[in-house]
């Protein structure tokens, strides 16, 4: 085969291009620190790189963003629950003090004022937020647990449906033959058949206590059109429907006992009202449903009872009812069904964790009502002491100096002293009951706090696993994509030597031609 100069030149140029391409490839790897610059150079590395990068992005999202955010939320919740538990400890101490017979009513009044202040502090802990989101209000993270101003509270108008079970039934002490200020001023004393003044006494009645006092015994709702807007009358005023809280056609409040006896329903404002055996009495002022003996038995047996009422006179620091009960906003018609509202974060592949604690899981609405009962028991004693002082003052006045008036005042004073003794006994019992109640609330909030602690522990374990996974995926990604600098430098040096050698060899291939040998 004849080899021509052109063939030698072409072969040398081809070799130079191959060596130059190798130098360029290694030079690019040194510049980018990557094995390949485009997928076509090595599809296997490219495919593996895409998978590893996607995995690393997910791990980074979980490890650097989701978990820290969840930890901060849970830590904020834990701090609030810890403070709430501390408040309950103080409430427990005050109930211990109040149950002591050595305390005068004035001292107990000081305790009552402290209880009211601590009640506000307790529910204020339910208003804590993390990054502008309130942590105890479920999905409504832009809403506080309590109304922050009277203006906001005045806008609230709800129809509330509260559900009860047998554990919600409690007893209430009421007074019979109790004297009022009107009785004192009019010397209205009742006498028995023997001519003796009728003395006050106490009885117990069964009750279901609503979440709020000073509610309405009517439910007022706005009529809405098909678009959800309020329907207006000819004068431009909203059309409303008002229903009195009485037994409905379905017997929601009117129950029939086991003997088939129909039960009656009564609206009352008398705080000492005693219902009949087959009677339900609703006191909208105190927020109580009083039950007669047969009603109590029926409710206890069925273990289920619901009551619907309206509340539109909220004030600052009142609890938002949508956080605890099924509600209907009477102004907008929006229905709020109280269901679990778990806020969950993705913290790993196919792994979620609940980060929120709802208000009804930790900040029991009944704690405030129990404190109100304690304050009321103290106030009852103070009121009776004031009435006693009033009667003692009247006995010294000349207009009551006649024998009949003095007899009535003495009888009234005896009755008031007995009523005061009964009230003091009930006050002591209320504080003694408060000890057990606060222990129950402490257990509730402690369990909620422990649950948050468990979730934080799970987060820490997941964070540890993800940290290890992050390291492994990062190393795998580097091994797949990144060059071994020492190897590439050695290869680059060798390629440069080969390239230079090919240039030198090519320069000598065509130095001589056929003309050099003629002559």
Please give the largest β-sheet.
5 strands, mixed
Helical percentage: 40-55%
Q: Enumerate the strands of the largest sheet in spatial order, edge to edge or round the barrel.
A: 4-5-10-9-8
User: In percent, how much strand structure appears in the residues?
Assistant: 5-15%
Cα separation of the termini: 27 Å
Order of helices and strands: HHHEEHEEHEEEEEEHEEEEEHHHH
Globally, the shape reads rod-shaped
Report the count of strand segments. Answer: 15
Alpha-beta content class: alpha+beta
Low-confidence stretches: 241-260
Radius of gyration: 42 Å
Average pLDDT, rounded to a whole number, is 84
**Count of alpha/pi helices:** 10
Sum this structure up briefly.
The protein is α+β, with helices and mostly antiparallel strands and 519 residues long. 51% of the residues lie in helices and 14% in strands.
Q: What does it look like?
A:
The protein is an alpha+beta fold. Helices cover 51% and strands 14% of the residues. The protein contains 10 helices and 15 strands. A 5-stranded mixed sheet has the order 4-5-10-9-8. The protein has a 4-stranded antiparallel sheet with strand order 11-3-12-13, with no helix packed on it. α2 runs antiparallel to α3 and α8 packs antiparallel against α9. It is rod-shaped.
């Amino acid at each position: 085969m004849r080899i021509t100069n052109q063939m030698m030149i072409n072969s040398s140029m081809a070799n130079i291009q191959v060596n130059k391409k190798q130098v360029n490839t290694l030079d690019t790897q040194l510049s980018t620190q990557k094995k390949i610059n485009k997928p076509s150079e090595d599809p296997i590395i490219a495919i593996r790189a895409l998978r590893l990068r996607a995995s690393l992005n997910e791990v980074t999202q979980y490890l650097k963003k989701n978990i820290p955010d969840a930890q901060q939320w849970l830590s904020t919740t834990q701090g609030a629950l810890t403070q709430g538990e501390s408040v309950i400890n103080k409430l427990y101490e005050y109930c211990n003090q109040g149950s002591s017979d050595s305390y005068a009513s004035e001292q107990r009044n000081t305790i009552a004022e402290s209880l009211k202040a601590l009640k506000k502090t307790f529910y204020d802990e339910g208003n804590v937020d993390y990054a502008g989101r309130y942590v105890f209000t479920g999905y409504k993270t832009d809403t506080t647990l309590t109304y922050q101003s009277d203006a906001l509270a005045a806008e609230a108008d709800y129809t509330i449906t509260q559900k009860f079970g047998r554990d919600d039934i409690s007893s209430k002490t009421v007074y019979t033959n109790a004297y009022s200020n009107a009785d004192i001023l009019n010397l209205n004393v009742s006498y028995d058949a023997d001519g003796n003044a009728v003395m006050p006494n106490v009885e117990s009645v069964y009750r279901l206590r609503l979440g709020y006092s000073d509610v309405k015994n009517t439910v007022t709702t706005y009529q809405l059109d098909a678009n959800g807007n309020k329907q207006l009358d000819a004068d431009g005023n909203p059309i409303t429907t008002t229903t009195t809280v009485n037994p409905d056609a379905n017997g929601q409040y009117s129950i029939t006992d086991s003997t088939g006896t129909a039960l009656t329903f009564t609206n009352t404002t008398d705080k000492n009202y005693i219902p009949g055996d087959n009677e339900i009495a609703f006191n909208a002022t105190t927020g109580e449903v009083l039950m007669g003996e047969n009603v109590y038995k029926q409710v206890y047996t069925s273990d289920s009872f619901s009551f619907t009422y309206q509340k539109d006179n909220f004030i600052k620091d009142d609890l938002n009812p949508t956080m605890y009960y099924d509600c209907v906003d009477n102004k907008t018609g929006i229905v709020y069904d109280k269901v679990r509202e778990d806020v969950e974060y993705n913290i790993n592949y196919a792994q979620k964790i609940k980060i929120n604690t709802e208000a009804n899981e930790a900040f029991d609405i009944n704690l405030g009502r129990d404190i109100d009962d304690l304050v009321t028991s103290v106030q009852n004693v103070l009121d009776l002491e004031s009435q006693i002082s009033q009667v003692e003052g009247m006995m010294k006045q000349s207009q009551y100096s006649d024998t009949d008036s003095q007899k009535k005042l003495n009888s009234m004073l005896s009755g008031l002293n007995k009523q005061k003794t009964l009230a003091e006994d009930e006050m002591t019992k209320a504080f003694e009951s408060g000890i057990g109640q606060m222990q129950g609330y402490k257990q509730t909030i402690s369990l909620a706090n422990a649950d948050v602690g468990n979730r934080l522990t799970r987060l820490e374990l997941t964070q540890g696993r993800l940290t290890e996974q992050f390291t492994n995926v990062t190393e795998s990604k580097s091994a797949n994509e990144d060059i071994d600098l020492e190897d590439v430098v050695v290869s680059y040096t060798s390629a440069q030597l080969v390239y230079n050698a090919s240039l030198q060899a090519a320069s000598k291939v065509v130095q001589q031609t056929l003309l050099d040998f003629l002559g």
